[in-house]
Amino acid sequence: MSSEPSRSSGLDPVAAALREASVAVARAVLELSTSNPVILLDGRSGAGKSSLARDIVARWPLRGRVQLVGLDAIYPGWDGLRAGVEAAREQILVPHGRGLIGIWQRWDWDASAYAEAHAVDPSLPLIVEGSGILTPQTAGLADVRIWLEAPASSRRRRALERDGDTYRPHWDRWAEQEDRHIARDAPHRHATQLFAIP
Question: Which domains does the chain have, with CATH numbers?
Fold first, then answer.
């Protein structure tokens, strides 16, 4: 639980839960003895991953900047959850862990093709957020591993409010991939931090 209840009391329940989560993550980062920690942030669509990731960046407790990569920029289309996670592992997490520059390509959803390349600096902290990112293969490559849990009705409402008609036809298709990820990878078991978001 956060030690700042008075600051969160004026927020709506979702914003308050995300703030408490980001405070807890900042505390966990401070307890690490590394200047370039890696954070993995997983949860189903609409759970609040992107919002939490932005809040963590905003209150980053170490000096210097932190790199944030969202898997929405890497998944190769609506059937690409597992492929996007594997690309992030091979192109971002493994090189970062070896002290090498990682290079990943953005997926252009409109063109259905890969676009420009981006570099990840191994000397800087790194947050990778997205559905599916926390697996037995990625867990050992991260210092802080987060799983967000949220009710299906809340998640769906938030996701469709955010992405509207673009996402609506693909909701079930994406949810099936998330189901397979949870059954296969048990992400909550690999998490060092678990947060419930209303």
Answer: 5-196 (3.40.50.300)
